[in-house]
Amino acid sequence: MTVTVAEYLGIDVKSGKSVQPVSGGKGTQVPCPFRAGSCSKVSKGNKPVCSVRDGSGELWIVCEHRLCATSPKDAPLTEYQSDVLISIARTLWGPSVEKTDVAVRREVPVKTEGRSDSRADYVMVPTSDFRSKDKTNTVGPVVLEMQGGGETSQTGALTAQVGKWEVEPSAATEVGTLIKPVTSVGTIEANAWRRQQEQFLYKGNVAVNSFGRLVFAVGSKLYDYLMNNLASTAMQDLRGANWTLALVAISEDDQKSDGSFSTTDSVPLKIDENRLLFTSYPKFVQALINQGGSDPEMFRGSFLRLDGPTITVG
DNA sequence: AAGCCACTCGTTTCATGTGA
DNA sequence: TCACATGAAACGAGTGGCTT
Q1: pLDDT digits (tens, 9 = 90+) for A147-174
Q2: Nucleotide nearest to A190 (CA to C1')
Q3: Is A235 exposed, middle or buried (0-12, 13-18, 19+ CB in 10 A)?
Q4: Is residue A90 scored above 90 in pLDDT?
Q5: Closest CA to A33 of A243, A264, A231
Q6: What DSSP string describes chain A?
Q7: Distance A295 CA to C14 C1' (A)
């Protein structure tokens, strides 16, 4: 298992642009290229790696702010962020949607019973502009959760290699060590997905009960991971109709096509038209529950009785 | 076949940022 | 000050290949 660094502080390391190593320990403030705020990895004393590539070259976002940050609270949306959001809005509501047609709130409290509120990344609504322009569009407000990727295993090994590159005299001109594959490091889809499942079970319920819909924008590797886990269940495609849950994959766009979003030197991303799922929330929940088939043998065969002997249960 | 080792995967714990 | 979200890192178990 191997990964390579894809972006260092927002620079695509293969773009040929010079990559400036960041110096300074914990507390150092450098701007994040994707949001109006500073790089939280650098301020924590970590390496500013925004994304990596797995052995097959597929992008895996490793920074929570890379795809579309929801903080700082009072910061304006960057152009990059509004580009991401308009792309999602067009996927949901149609290609004619403009930026004046869409409004968002960030870190929106989701009322839950029996526990303190959790927060949804975004709530996205059509503005009056859009509703008067497209009276036939029946798709309303959505709760939008964003998860570009997650973490890697063996983070320390990756950190060590980036750290080695940063102090090389040639670092400012050569990305050699920086882009060297790091063996023994892998992407951990399961962790990202496990954490999302528990959230979306109640957030989805609140969204649906509030006449809204739930949208998950996920990185392509995450999308593939969860579709594999749900493969046995045929889910009908309700695009353009009465869907209440959408999965929208975001993948790399080498072609830099019209719909792609990026900052000046970052890896361009786009909505992956081949990885979209529009279904109903209850059906999706059912598909999650159905993970794992039946196994009657589980309750038959050799057992250990509590007073010692091995017995056979039939 | 048994033991050893490297590697991977998933879990747990810890730390930090953030906002209520 | 508290709780949530989530990344970092350590930990533990399973697996498969290699050697003896």
Answers
A1: 777 777 767 777 777 877 887 877 778 8
A2: B10
A3: middle
A4: yes
A5: A264
A6: -EEEEEEETTEETTSS---PPP---TT---B-SSSSSB-HHHHTT---EEEEE-TT--EEE--TTTTT---STTPPPPHHHHHHHHHHHHHHH-TT--GGGEEEEEEEEE--SSS--EEEEEEEEE-HHHHHH-TT-----EEEEEE-B--BS-HHHHHHHHHHHHTSTTTTT--TTTTS-EET--B-HHHHHHHHHHHHHHHHHHHHHTT-EEEEEEEHHHHHHHHHHTTTS-----TTTT-SEEEEEEEE-TT--TT-B--TTSPPEEEEEEEEEEE-HHHHHHHHHT-S---GGGGSEEEE-TTS-EEEE-
A7: 21
Q: Which nucleotides in chain C lie closer than 7 A to a protein CB?
A: 3-11
Q: Nearest residue to nucleotide B9 when comparing alpha carbons to its C1'?
A: A188
Question: Would you list the DSSP string of A196-263?
Answer: HHHHHHHHHHHHHHTT-EEEEEEEHHHHHHHHHHTTTS-----TTTT-SEEEEEEEE-TT--TT-B--
Report if CB A172 to strand B is under 7 Å.
no
Q: Which amino acid is at A298?
A: M
Which CA-bearing residue is nearest the C1' of B16? A44
Asked if A234 contacts A280 with a C-beta cutoff of 8 angstroms, the reply is no
> How far is A272 from A276, CA to CA, in rounded Å?
7
Average pLDDT over residues A274-290: 79
Q: Structural domain boundaries of chain A? A: 1-62+153-186, 67-151+187-291
Residue of A80, A82, A113 lying closest to A99 (CA atoms): A82
Q: List residues bridging with A38 in a β-sheet.
A: A31
pLDDT attached to residue A152: 75
